[in-house]
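It would be a great kindness if you could assist me with a short task in structural biology. The matter concerns a single protein, recorded as an amino acid sequence and a row of backbone structure tokens. Could you please explain, in whatever detail you think fit, how the structure tokens follow from the sequence? Thank you for your consideration; the sequence and its tokens are set out here:
___
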Amino acid sequence: MNWLNSEAFTLFGQHIIWSDMAGNILGLITLALGWRRSLWTWPVQFLSGLVLFAAFYGHLTGSAGKQAVVMAVALYGWWQWQRDKDRSEDGHIAPRFATGRERAAMLAAAAVGTVAVALLFKAYPSLSWDPWPDAYIFVGTIVAMYAQAKGMVEFWFAWLLVDLVGVPLNFANGYAFSGFVYVIYGALVLWGMRDWWLRSRRGPQPALEGAPA
């Protein structure tokens, strides 16, 4: 898989590598499909993780491990959407806002997870070149994917917070294509957020497991 780490072309003086380009193009498709609430968002997300896993495996073990986690969450998301798609009138998941308890749980998980992962990265420097922002992006991505799997509008907010760090970090570390893609992510996130927000306010909300009638 060495060709995945070879240079595809140069853009604005930045060297674009095949894995960075392919993985992030698939990531953009994933986000667009998520906006449309298509079940295909999860297989494409899995494929994106697989491409990056193949590129990093045997070279950047920590990065490969992170992609393995992303692929696992993508499988969970596919299962969750497959189960919930019949709960709405149009055959797709019905977006909703998270409950106060869910928001608190996700914020706590993001905070504790970021600290734990950053300390792991610092203890094993080979896992990351920049432990704290890398941990923030990794944990934020997992939280965003989990919220998306649950059909929560808040997943778009999580992606915006990831973008705020992801754009400068990718440019700083030479992943120019990732940096450009994260800028486009930002625009897609705003449009997707508006669409899910409006849909969450149409019609009755789906019943939550364990919630009182």
The CA atoms of residues 128 and 134 lie 7 Å apart. The helical segments are 18-35, 41-56, 61-84, 100-123, 131-149, 154-172, 176-200.
